[in-house]
Amino acid sequence: MNQQILQPEPTAAALPASDMAMALAHLPQALLVFDAQHRLIFGNPACASLLDLPTELLARWVTEHCTGQEIASHQGARGEPAEDFAPAQNSSRTRRTAAGKTLQFTTQMLPSGGWLRSYCDVSALAAELEAKSASEVVLRFALEGAGDGVWDWDVRANITQYSRRWKEMMGFSGADLDSDICYREPPRIHPDDFDAAWAAVHAHLAGKTPGYVSEHRRMHKDGKWRWLLARGMVASRDAEGQALRMTGTSTDITARKLAEEQLLLAANVFKHAREGIVITDAAGNIIDVNETFSQITAYPREAVLGRAALMLRSSAQAPGFYTQLWRDLHAGGYWSGEMWIRRSAGDIVAIMLTISEVKGKKGETQNFVALFTDITQTKHHLRQLERNAHFDALTGMPNRVLLAQRLQHAMAQCRRRKLSLAVAYLDLDGFKSINDRHGHATGDELLIAVANRMQSVLRDGDVLARIGGDEFVAVLSELAQPRDCEQALERLLKAASAPVQLGDLLLEVSTSIGVTIYPQDGADADRLIRHADQAMYLAKQAGKNRFHLFDIAHEAAAKQQREGLAEMRNALALGQFKLCYQPKVNMRTNAVVGVEALIRWQHPERGELPPAAFLPLIEDQALSVDVGEWVIAQALRQIALWRAEGLDLQVSVNVCAMQLQQANFVSRLSALLLPTAGEQQCGLQLEVLETSALEDMAQMSKLMHACQTLGVHFALDDFGTGYSSLTYLRRLPIELLKIDQTFVRDMLSDPDDLAIVTGVIGLAKAFGRQVIAEGVETAAHGARLLALGCELAQGYGIARPMPATAVPAWVAAWSEKPHWLA
User: Fold this and answer.
1) Among 198, 296, 332, 730, which residue's CB has the most CB atoms within a 10 Å radius?
2) What is the dihedral sign for C-alpha 372, 376, 377, 379?
C-alpha cells in the first residue's frame, strides 16, 4: 500500500509529527479525518481494508480532498447503504457493507473544527445477536405483552437500546417509537436513588447477585419522575468472565408507589392524630383504635378490639339518644354532635364526635369510622362562663339575666294557675355612706351578709336577685291574693335592718322596697321591674325602711304620654329632628371604625333635647316605627354623602323592638337600601337593645339573616343591662356586643362593674363576637379595656356626638396618639 499517499496533506497543519503519523497508519482500527470544510485529509490503510476500497481510490480521495457526500455517492453506486457524513459530536451507529460486514462507526469532533470517523468490525457480535434474535423476539413479545419495557445494554460500548413498550412507558411518541433510542451516559435516575441503583448494577456485574433488581425514579420525557421496577441479568460474558451484555425489563410502578405513600400517610395520620379514632365493622364491633383513643378513654387497644362500640355509652345521655343516633347514621351515612362517654374507670368525659359510614363497591355498609375530641374542659369552662353570665359574682345570687328567665317562668305559671305574683325592687338605705367610710371590702361583706339574711326569710319558690350595687329584686310567686305578699315584705324589711357584726364593726342598713303585682299590673317582665323601681323611689321619699305598692292608677302619666306622642308626631312632620354622630375607634390600631347615629330633637321651646328626654314617650308606640325609619333613611343618605367625599364609614342605628316586629320590616328596609343596590356593603349596622321583646327566637333569627343578605350588620346594644340569655348569642347572628356605659364608667372603682365588663368580654370571645365598650371617658378606661382584650370603644373620652358636617374633619384630625397607646 502506498503509505505516502495515505499520509495527510502538508497543508493540514493540525497533523502530528511523522512518528505519530506512522502510528496512525499502522492502527488496526480504520480512521478517516475531515477538515472543517468537510474535506477528506487523511485515511489509514486499515480503512481501505475494512471498507473494501482499492488503495488507489482511497489515496485519490485524500489527494483530491473528496467530501463526505462524494464518498457516500460511491457507496450508493456499490449497492451499500450510504453513510451520513455530517459531523455529530460523539455519535455512534452501525451499517452493513456490500461484502456483508457489520461495521460500527463513531464520529469525534476535533479542536480545529474538523472531525474524525473511526470504524470497527462488529460482524461477529452481530452474527451472535442474529442467532439469538428468534428466541429474543418471542421473549420480548411475552414481556411487552405483560406491560413491561425491555432494555438491552452493551456493557463495553455503554450503549443501551430500548423496546417500543419502554419508550411508550417513558413518554416517547410518534417517530421516536420507531427509532433507536440509545444512551451512552448514565440513565437519568433521581439523585436520591442513583447510588443504590448503580450499586445493584455493579453487584450483579461482579457476580455477587443472581440478578439485578432496583426500584428507582427515572425522568419521564415530560420532565416528571416515574417510579420503575428494573430487573435484569447478564446475557453474556467474555472468556475472563467480564460482562459483555445485560438485558432486562422495566415496569412502571408509579401507581403502586403512590398507593404505598397514601397508605403510609393514612397510617401516620391514624397513629399521630390528635383526635381519637375508632374503626368498627358494619355491626359496630371495634376493629382498630389509635393511641389518642386510649389516652382519652383510658382503655388500652387490646381491651377494646372485638367489642361493641356501645361499651363506651354513658347514662348521661337522654333516653332514646343512641337509637336516634343509629337511625340518623343509617339514613344519612353521617352523624356529628356532642356526647358523654364512659372511661375505663367509670367516670365520664364529653366529646365532640363525628361518625362516617364507609360503603363497599355495591353500596353495602362495610365499616364505620368515628373521630372524636375531648371537650370536657371546654364544657366546664362554658359552664363556668354561663354561671358567670347568670349569677352575681359577689353574692352568688341570680343576676339580671337569670332573674328575667325566672320571672318569665313565674309569670307563665301564674297565668296557668290563675294566681298572682309580686315583683319587689329593693334598694339598701345608708349603704353608700358605709361603703365610702369603710371601703369596698367592708361594703362587699355587708352586702353578702344582708343578701343571705334576706334570702333566708323567703320561701323556696321565691327568687332574690342582685341586679347591681346595693339593689335587689325579689319575685314572690304563687300568691292567692295580692296582699299575701305583705308578710314576706315585712320579713325582708326586718332582715335588712338587723345589725351586722363585721369584726369590730357593728353596721346597720335598711331597705326601701317598691312592689308591683302581676297580673293586676299587666306589663311585661321588663316593665314590671321598672314599675317596682318607680315604687321604690316613692318608698324612699316616704322615709325609707318601708315598702310601697305601685299605683296602677297612673292616668296622669298616660295622659302626659299621649300629649307627648302628639307633639313628637308633629315634630317629625315639621323636620325638627336631626342626627348627630359619635365616632367609634379601634384603640389598638387608632383606626376610626364607624360612627353611631344619635337622634336629637330641636324643640322650638325647650331647645335641643337628648334621646332620653323624648324616646321613652314612643316606646311600644306606632310612632317609634316612623321615627326609626326616618333615622335609617337619614343615616343611609349621610353614608352616601360621605362616600361621595371619599369617606367610607359604617353607621350604626338603634332599632326598637316594635320596629323589628313589623311584618314588613325587611321589605321596608330593602326599599330604603334601594339607592345602594349593587354595592357590596351598604355601610349600615342595626343596634338591637338586649331588652327588646325577642320571644320568637326563630322569627328574629330569620329576620336578621334576611337583613344580612342586604348587607346590613347587627350589634347587641347595652349588653349586660337586659335579660337576654346565652341562647341569643348562640342562635342570633349578632356580630358585635356593646358593653353598656353604666358598667364601663365605674369599672375602675367598682369591682362588680369590672367583673361584669370582664365577663362580657369573655362571653364575646367564647362566642366569636366582637365587643365594643360605651362610655369610655378617660385614657385609664381605654388602657384597662385594652388589657382586658376589648379594642373597640366610643365615649366622651374619644369624641362627643357631632353634626355630620364635622365628622370628616374630626376623622382627618384623629392622628394624635391616644394615651392608652403610649
Assistant:
1) 296
2) positive
Does pTM top 0.70 for this prediction? no
Positive/negative CA dihedral, 704, 709, 710, 713: positive
How many Cα atoms occupy the beta-carbon half-sphere of 44 within 13 Å?
19
pLDDT per position as a tens digit, 49-64: 887 788 888 888 888 8
Place of cell 328567665: 405
How far apart CA 33 and CA 552 sit, in angstroms, is 128
C-alpha cell at 218: 427515572
H helices within 84-173, ranges in order?
123-145, 164-169
- Closest to 420 measured CA to CA, from 513, 520, 343, 283: 520
- 314 dihedral zone (left: phi>0; alpha: psi -120 to 50; beta): beta
What is residue 8's predicted lDDT score, i.e. its pLDDT?
46
Q: How far is CA 414 from CA 92, 428, 464, 782, in A?
A: 108, 29, 18, 46
Cis preceding-peptide flag for 187 (omega within 30 of 0): no
Tally of CB atoms within 10 A around 364: 8
Residue 655 identity (one-letter amino acid): V
Distance of CA 73 to the CA centre of its chain: 75
Q: CA-CA distance, 227 to 260, in Å (whole number)?
A: 12
φ and ψ of 802, to 5 deg: -140, 160
Alpha-carbon span 758 to 8, nearest angstrom: 103
Cα–Cα distance for residue pair 230/151, rounded to 1 Å: 10
- Chain centroid to Cα 291, Å, comes to 26
Three-state SS for 275?
A: coil
What pLDDT is stored for residue 266 in this prediction? 65
The answer to whether residue 182 scores a pLDDT higher than 50 is no
9/333 Cα distance (integer angstroms): 91
Q: Phi/psi of residue 175, each to 5°?
A: -65, -30
Largest CA distance in the chain: 149
Cell 317562668, residue located: 409
Tell me the CB-side half-sphere exposure of residue 85, using CA atoms within 13 A: 21
Q: Which residues contact 268 (CB under 8 A, 6 or more apart)?
A: none
All three cell numbers of 795: 365615649
